[in-house]
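Holo model, adenosine-5'-diphosphate. Inputs:
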Amino acid sequence: MNRLEGFKKLGVSENILGALKKKGFFKPTEIQEKTIPILLSGKTDVVAQAQTGTGKTAAFGIPLVENLKEGIGHVQALVLVPTRELAIQVSQEINSLKGRKKLLIVPIYGGSSLEQQFRWLKTGVDIVVGTPGRILDLIRRGWLSLGHVSYLVLDEADEMLNMGFIEDVEEILQSTNKEKRTLLFSATMPQRILGIAKKYMKEYEFIRINKQGLTVSLTNQVYFVLSSSEKFGALCNLIDSEKDFFGLVFCRTKADAAGVADKLVRRGYSAEAIHGDVSQYQRERILDRFRKKRTSILVATDVAARGIDIIDLACVVNYNLPQNPEVYLHRIGRTGRAGKSGTAITFVTPQEIKKLYLIRDFLGASITRGKLPKASGSLGLEKNRIKTYIENSVRLYKHNGYTALAKELLDGESRAEDVVAALLRYLLEERQ
Ligand code: ADP
Ligand code: MG
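Output:
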């Protein structure tokens, strides 16, 4: 157990040390180091601020699992999270931390079956991880009673505020018993969130991890200066320049995300988009394929990417410059996690360079200018993609606009393969 010395010192039990070992968590992160001992021993409430990707889930998950008792028969802890995706993720993470301890942890969110949730709740759930809307719904139906909880956790509190759930959160807080511990975790601390802490929490300990403590320090941050029309070609070159590219591409709008993913697919890349118009069902499918690396490029908007947490994400591309430092950090916080190195690439137009410098200076980050990778020019990497593209295209699309020209080209003296070869040359040279 030597490698887990850090966690052991914080007072973590052998059972959970075993679970941590299985997960590959050998060293506590800074926020874990500060919160776990307070939550294991003291009685105070806790407000903790640390950036995305710093391990906040385990910071409260480990103490919850340690402190809750087996076989209680009613809900002992409620964790509120902003999205369904996070409800699933956080419940899975806590579940993987519990070791041999017999605790039932369930995610509860809108869109999943109410009956199923009712059945779970009847069987004696210990920890509910849920989204505010659905939790409130269950409370109002009288299916969920929070009168005897020992812990209430507000996770990603700033996101719950951003997404307009704060009134629901307050109503839920009012329906819980007084003698519980309330824990609030957030990447940022807007006034409104601090207001909630003041109003609903007892004396609390405020823990803040400075930006320097971020795991993104492991991320190599690079920017490329290019015009909007050069972006797509540059993205393709970037993808081609890596042997097995696996990464997340951020776009500002739904239309951009859908458009970029669509163009990538047409070029034969394995890409998918998630944005606000993608149904919850689809979203989970898409994320699952990405997690299993069946899709290698995910194109996302900021909102849709909330809660995406993929450990081995080697690369994040900002196809558009993020609006502010928070969004920048949030995006790139998805790479360079858990001690692994990663690359964050930002595309900026000449007009946006100043804005990028503001972000860089605000964060005190080192973001260096990179040289755009050039197209390989040879067919090596592209052959399979072009083949896939043509096969798909012949099968899937109508080519009305092009058939007349195609006939004309094939009608002349030249052989069909020469015509196709000339078209390939045109396609590839255009990309340079
Ligand atoms: P946050 O909630 O602060 O955004 P998460 O709890 O989602 O961060 O953790 C970010 C990533 O780091 C997750 O993949 C998580 O499994 C991993 N992680 C958390 N704590 C550790 C640790 N002590 N050692 C290694 N990886 C960790
Ligand atoms: Mg979190």
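The chain has three domains: 5-209, 214-369, 399-432. The longest helix spans residues 416-431.
Archived with the compound record.
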